[in-house]
Task: inverse folding
């Protein structure tokens, strides 16, 4: 089957957030055409898209880099830096790039640059966290100044949406050759906004990039990301007129602003879900009985209600929510909450008198509440949980890099295509599979889920994968959260997506 899509810069092709000033104060740049966004962590983990470790980074990265492919509100692929595409065969994707784009250092954005970026990710190497995203790619060929041919070792239905994620964010090859490490703090991309300043723990400033191919549609002078990990702090700033927009607002916090006539909001369930990431290569989680015991000792329905309240989310049993096509209804509620069975499994594993492990998690009131509930639940079956709270980067590094903790209680923010999530979490060299656990049947199911061009075939493959994940206790899904974005009533046209990560393409501030 051949599929070709051509870019059309219209409201149907671009997520548009139109923002009116509403008397907002002048921004740092001296212009009232700077959108002020309450960002949800104290700092991004990296501004190099190939090296970051947190899904929350995307909201900043897209503004700087754009991506080869975009997606609509239902996470269907749309043109972007690739103005069109064509499946020449099931293992051959051709991209035709936009004309006239440049990187923010003035160098050309062309097929050579795309090949450089994709090959960099494919090779992996020090610091690269997303090599598994392009594991199916066999070769990248420059077929013309603005034409790229990608061949894969197997049919890869997920490839288009993979190129809307980190792997499709284009970094200046000149900047990488000059000083790759510097890109993490001083990014140079091909997107609509260029980086100007990062004040750690305070803000990241971007200004309009005149090098962007569609600069005329970029109405903002800049974006100021205010680094505010505490939800209430962000909402206070919004009510005070210090920011224009924020997101990831939990139900309890939203109650304090829902009657504010000056504010509007959008709310939807997303692909983001909290879980216990486990290191299956180290004790005690190298034992399937311990993993299954932990899964059975946590009442997920009670947990999501206690943390988020009624309607704030849904219990998670697999890596996708019930609204997603890859969800398997027959697996809902498995394994069942059963503390007595958990105790028996622990005794069989030689832990009749208990065991303990360390769990890293991000600071914040809701995170602390969730961690304490889990600690209390596991204590009832004889497990002592040592909580290790810290900031985003430190918490993730403790599990991924130093492996100084056996578990991580954190959020996976979801990816446009489920194959990217499943490979990143559960393949042998996946980003969060730090113990490099391998299950041949799981691996086969993951590959079948990625390769199938027919959705019914993919549904069947992920049903097998979901069952295996539950049976082997590969991480403990906890709940999916509902994302609420809150903004001044001057913000017009904002539309959330299932991914739950705001993009600000085409944003304008009018009425100044």
Result:
């Amino acid at each position: 089957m051949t599929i070709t899509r051509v870019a059309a810069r219209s409201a149907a092709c671009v997520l548009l957030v139109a923002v009116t000033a509403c008397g907002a104060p002048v921004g740092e740049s001296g212009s009232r055409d700077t959108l002020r966004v309450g960002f949800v962590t104290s700092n991004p983990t990296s501004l190099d898209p190939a090296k970051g470790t947190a899904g929350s980074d995307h909201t900043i990265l897209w503004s700087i880099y754009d991506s080869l492919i975009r997606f609509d509100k239902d996470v269907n692929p749309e043109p972007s830096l690739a103005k069109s595409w064509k499946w020449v065969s099931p293992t051959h994707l051709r991209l035709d790039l936009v004309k006239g784009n440049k990187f923010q250092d003035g160098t050309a954005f062309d097929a050579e640059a795309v090949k450089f970026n994709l090959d960099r990710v494919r090779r992996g190497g020090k610091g690269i966290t997303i090599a598994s995203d392009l594991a199916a790619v066999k070769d990248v060929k420059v077929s013309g100044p603005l034409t790229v041919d990608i061949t894969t070792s197997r049919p890869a239905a997920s490839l288009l949406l993979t190129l809307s994620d980190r792997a499709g964010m284009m970094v200046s090859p000149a900047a990488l050759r000059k000083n790759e490490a510097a890109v993490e703090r001083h990014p140079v991309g091909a997107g609509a906004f260029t980086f100007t300043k990062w004040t750690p723990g305070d803000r990241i400033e971007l200004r309009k990039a005149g090098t962007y191919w569609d600069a005329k549609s970029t109405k903002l002078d800049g974006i100021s990301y205010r680094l505010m990990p505490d939800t209430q702090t962000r909402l206070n700033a919004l009510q005070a007129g210090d920011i224009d927009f924020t997101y990831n607002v939990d139900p309890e916090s939203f109650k304090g602003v829902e009657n504010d006539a000056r504010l509007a909001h959008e709310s939807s369930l997303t692909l983001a879900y909290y879980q216990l990431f486990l290191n299956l290569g180290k004790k005690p989680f190298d034992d399937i009985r311990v993993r299954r015991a932990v899964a059975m000792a946590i009442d997920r329905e009670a947990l999501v209600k206690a943390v988020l309240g009624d309607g704030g989310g849904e219990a998670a049993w697999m890596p996708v929510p019930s609204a997603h096509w890859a969800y398997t209804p027959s697996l809902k509620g498995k394994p069942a909450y059963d503390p007595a069975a958990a105790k028996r499994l622990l005794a069989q594993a030689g832990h009749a008198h208990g065991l303990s492990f360390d769990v890293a998690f991000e600071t914040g009131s809701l995170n602390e509440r969730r961690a304490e509930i889990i600690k209390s639940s596991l204590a009832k079956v004889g497990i002592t949980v040592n909580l290790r709270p810290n900031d985003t980067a430190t918490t993730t590094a403790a599990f991924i890099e130093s492996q100084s903790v056996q578990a991580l209680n954190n959020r996976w923010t979801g990816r446009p295509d489920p194959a990217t999530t499943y490979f990143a979490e559960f393949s042998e060299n996946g980003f969060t599979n730090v113990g490099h656990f391998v299950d041949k049947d799981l691996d086969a199911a993951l590959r079948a889920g990625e390769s199938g061009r027919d959705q019914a075939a993919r549904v069947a493959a992920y049903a097998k994968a979901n069952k295996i994940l539950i049976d082997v206790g590969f991480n403990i899904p906890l709940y999916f959260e509902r994302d609420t974005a809150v903004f001044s009533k001057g913000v017009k046209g904002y539309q959330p997506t299932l991914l739950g990560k705001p993009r600000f393409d085409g944003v304008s501030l009018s009425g100044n």
Summary: Confidence is low (pLDDT under 50) at residues 1-30. The radius of gyration is 23 Å.
